[in-house]
Amino acid sequence: MKKFVLSNIYFGGDYTPEHFGKEVMEEDMRLMKKAGVNIATINVFSWGQLQPDEDTWTFEWLDEVMNTLAKNGISADLGTATASTPAWMAKKYPEILPIDKNGLLFYHGSRQTFNPNSPKYRELSKKLVRKIAERYKDHPALCMWHVNNELSHLVNYDFSEITIKKFQNWCKEKYGTCENLNNKWGLHFWGNNIYQWDELMPPMRTAHQVSTTLLLEWKRFTNECYMEVARDEIAILREVTPNVPITTNFLYEFKTLDYFAWADMIDFISVSSFPDPKTTTHPGEAALSHDFMRGLKDQPFVLLEQAPSQVNWRKVNVNKKPGVMRLWSYQGMAHGSDSFMFYQWRASVQGSEKFHSAIVPHIGENSRVFKEMTQFGRELPSLKEVLGSDVQADVAIVLDYNNWWTVEFTPGPTALLKYLENLQAYHYPLFEQNITTDIISYDRDMSKYKVVIAPLLYMVKPGFKESVEKFVSEGGTFITTFFSGVVDEMDRVFQGGFPGPLSDVLGLKVEEFEAMKPYINNSLVMNDKLPNVSGQFESRLWCDILQLGTAQSLAEYGSDFFKGTPALTVNNFGKGKAYYVATLPGNEFMRQFLRQVCAEKGVKPVLEATEKVEAVVRSNKDNEYLFVMNHNYEPVEVTLPDAEYFDLLTQTTMKGTIRLDAVQPVVLRKN
Ligand code: GLA
Question: Could you give the domains of the chain?
Fold first, then answer.
């Protein structure tokens, strides 16, 4: 993948001067300069202000915004305005309105109210995007395109006649005959076979469950539909402005779209990142999100939306305490973010988001949030040398959307199975020990890693068995878990025992599995065959009962009718090892187990672990940058690796043991 590096560390926010009037815009320019803002995201939801009816265009206000930004040396992340449709459109072309799974219409009056497959929406949005691109293609303020906004976030699926027909055609093209589709999807179950293409229905409201393969294919289809929406816009932007980079903002913990499939379409990944600032939030939550965003292109990315303080859409919206916005921004940079943009510049006076924080709160510049933002904005230029540097990781965790979807919609064995929680179960203990992790797709080359972990790899797609076997036989360490190797890419169970195609590399078969009620635990009793991990640990959620082939047991279950049978195994395969974790162990086991597995492969922590102190290294051909972040609300002492460092934020030299204030980050260039 070609590497894209931004020309600047961008700092700014979503800017809607059209809500405030001209006088405020002058004041905004003064404040933006004071805070060191160099970018504004504009025009994201303003189609209704650009085209009051089908034949009238009112670009003058946007010209003025663009000109004012340029005059003040501020760049524009220019939205294509397609994320919110104007009122006349719904009235004139009701086909643009999406329909939910109950067959009910989403009416006009909010945002993102469009059917991605409506030819009218697609025609009108392309017209709009071309007008915007042509009008501003040479404008000095234009520095990047912001396509639509968080596509599919609010309307995940559309069930209109238009979309149903398109889905039927998509299936016809893919399967050729209804008989083939019946067989591939297992539609003989409950007699759901179809004999004509127009009998095929998407998963709308039904009396009971529908085919899980139908659900899977429906999600794959919907992902492609939203990709077409983005592709329409991107094609126009590439044609009119071939040199202007393009992004569209993604969301973490959002599983409707398969972002790995999207990554190639855009120049850089950008994300809306809103971890809950309550003090109990694990700092690994954001770290995992950032590792994921970096992993989509295996490149730096952009934090395109963060909240300066609180949001307005949780039940209870907690503020970011003093210093946390800055700490979390540097945490983003440590994991690969090359810019910092916020939602939003100035707090709204009216509407849904008037109690969402902003760089300029209602009280104005004389406020904690504005002052913290100004301090942060002023120190960013000293970090320019970090731009484009890479995060080095020896450990990778596989994330696969098809698995995410299927394990969560498959009825049984337990509704408590949450895909991301199982990824976190491995990522957090690594994070806590300062072992940096890449998040990779199932088909990414594994050879650059020493350890690859694929938690809950329920679906094993063609090619994965071969790449794991190659990786392990050449010396890699592979770890997978219970409920892996269960189905193929059509959600069809592998016959002859799980983990199906992974049985050889793991040297075992699963004979039975049991889901555990939340208040029932089992335990994992170590048998001293795994060095440095001994004793007894918690096991919950699930127990696989195993039949071992060539694998060796490293721990056994402590109770139930399968007491004394293997719960953790290892198999030597070629020059490497494959571990199988047959249950969900608690964090203490994970820390010790992963530390041992990493140590065996020579994977070292960036810094010795101190509770809630995070360390990550970014490097380029000239320098290595050590980011150390104190996530504690009190000071800590940390001993740096044996070298001399230059702190880019305070411009001082450091070595040995340093003191970090509460929530203080440092960015240290190794001398
Ligand atoms: C999302 C949207 C923004 C805004 C923020 C509020 O990220 O893109 O328009 O609604 O949430 O947190």
Answer: 11-152+245-383 (3.20.20.80), 395-600 (3.40.50.880), 613-670 (2.60.40.1180)
